[in-house]
Amino acid sequence: MHQRASLEPSYVLKGLGIGDDLAHSSLRLSLGRWTTEEEVEFAGAKIIEAVRKLRSLSPLYDMHQEGIDITKIEWQAH
Amino acid sequence: MAYSDKVVDHYENPRNVGNFGSTGEVKGRKDVGVGLVGAPECGDVMQLQIKVNQDTGVIEDAKFKCFGCGSAIASSSLATEWLKGRTLDEGLSIRNTEIVEELSLPPVKIHCSVLAEDAIKAAIADYKAKNSTEAPQTAAKA
Q1: Which fold has domain B5-127?
Q2: Is the CB of B3 inside 8 Å of chain A's CB atoms?
Q3: pLDDT of B11-67, one tens digit each?
Q4: Rounded to whole angstroms, how far apart are CA atoms B123 and B82?
Q5: Is B114's CB within 8 Å of A78's CB?
Q6: What's the per-residue H, E or C state across A1-41?
Q7: Does the distance separating the beta carbons of B108 and A78 come in below 8 Å?
Q8: What are the sequence ranges of the domains in chain B?
Q9: ipTM score of the complex?
Q10: pLDDT tens readout for residues A3-45
């Protein structure tokens, strides 16, 4: 569930030459000086759970599993 | 910006997730209409499949898969709930504004409801195309 002020993907990732589809699937994590290992483990477990759930909902992940090249599909941009 | 309770509920408990077969399988099924709309580059892709009673023209079952934000998932989940039990024409009468209202979508998420309406129309159009007498298709029987 990405939820930011702007729906545009990160200009930094785009500047690095990452395609829009991958840039839309990105997550930025920041660590602070007082972030503990326990917190990192906690966040990691939550993220894994969320990614599994989102993949189970995603038609693109199904296509990927079926061996369909999603870059070959004629998508209508909106 | 916060998601409404209804959006959160659909995200936590999405209704009718799935499909009636793999991409190849549903292509050959005349009782199933498939709508695939949106684009990965835009961050939203919805796939809506309807299973239609071919005698009555009533949508007996509907399933979705969605790549996108919580509002996109909620919009397509809601669409499957609303489609079940409707005729094709009744399905076509669903407007994105009704989805906006039901889910209290903010302006920045209205495109999610538009995409859901597009997915409904695409699935019904696919069903109709498969069952059109003008362009008969050789049904792939397994």
Answers
A1: Sufe protein. Chain: A (3.90.1010)
A2: yes
A3: 999 999 999 999 889 999 999 999 999 998 888 999 999 999 999 999 999 999 999
A4: 14
A5: yes
A6: CCCCCCCCCCHHHHHCCCCHHHHCCCCCCCCCCCCCHHHHH
A7: no
A8: 5-127
A9: 0.85
A10: 455 677 888 888 999 888 888 888 889 999 999 999 999 999 9
